[in-house]
Amino acid sequence: MKFSPAHYLLPLLPALVFSTRQDHEDLEKQLKEIFKERSTVLHQLTKNSKEFDGIKGNLQSLTNEEKSAKTNVQTLLEISQKQREQMKSLQEALQNHLKEASEKAEKQQATINFLKTEVERKSKMIRDLQNENKSLKNKLLSGNKLCGIRAEESKKIQAQLKELRYGKKDLLFKAQQLTDLEQKLAVARNELKKASFDRESQLKAMKETVNLCLSTVFNDQPSPLSLIRPNPTHMSFLPKAMDTVIPATTMKSKVHLICVLKSKIK
């Protein structure tokens, strides 16, 4: 009888089955452990992936922040450059302003010095004027006193002028009387010439004429302010002259008598 190789393997089959089952269980355990490890790894990978995504997001945000920071830095640099330029222009403007202010201050100081000099000069002028004013006041006071004296003298002079005016009127009146007397003497002289043939009538007419003239001149009451007053010597001299000329017989002596009378009356 011939045996096949399977007849040799049949007694070994349970052992093979047991070993196979055990191997299968071991494999299942290993597979479970592998699946468990795989799940753990997958979970860890998922977690790592999430962390990676977070890190990636953080990196992206950091990149964006870096870009923004670069942009901000560039903007800040531009702003800083502009500020530097503005500060430079402001510094130049400030220097110019300070220069102008210093020039103005120098001009103002010069003006102040000039004004001080002018004030001192004006003060000196004011003091001089005050002193001159004081002297003028003193002169004015003395002038007022002199004016008072001059006023009194002026009153006196005015009174004297008033008296002189009255005296002038009286003199004019006397001059008019003398003119009338001259006219009367001229008339008398003509009458004497006409009546030369009659000496007695001539002497009588001459006496009447002279007496009339003398009574007209010396019997007037003159003004008390008159400057011409009758002289008593004239009154005493005229009759003597008349007595001396009466014996005259010629026409020449008669004319001379009239001239003497005129000169004495004047």
Describe the structure.
Mean pLDDT is 73; it is low at 221-251. This protein is mainly α and 266 residues long. It has helices spanning 5-9, 13-194, 199-218, 232-245, 251-265. Helix content is 89%, strand content 0%.
Secondary structure blueprint with pairings:
Blueprint: H1 5-9, H2 13-194, H3 199-218, H4 232-245, H5 251-265
Helix pairs in contact: 2-3, 2-5, 4-5
Coiled coil: 73-146, 171-198
Protein name: Leucine zipper protein 2
Organism: Rousettus aegyptiacus
Question: What's this model, at a glance?
Answer:
This protein is mainly alpha-helical. It contains five helices and no strands. The protein has a domain at about 165-265.
Salient structural properties:
single chain; 266 residues; mainly alpha; 5 helices; rod-shaped; coiled coil; Luzp2; Leucine zipper protein 2
Per DSSP, what share of the residues sits in E-state strands of 2 or more residues?
under 5%
Structural class of the helix and strand makeup?
Answer: mainly alpha
Cα Rg: 83 Å
- What fraction, in percent, of the residue positions are helical? over 70%
End-to-end CA span: 240 Å
What does the overall shape look like?
A: rod-shaped
- The DSSP helix count reads 5
Query: How many beta-strand elements?
Result: 0
Q: What would the average pLDDT be, to the nearest integer? A: 73
Largest sheet: none
Order of helices and strands: HHHHH
The poorly predicted ranges are: 221-251
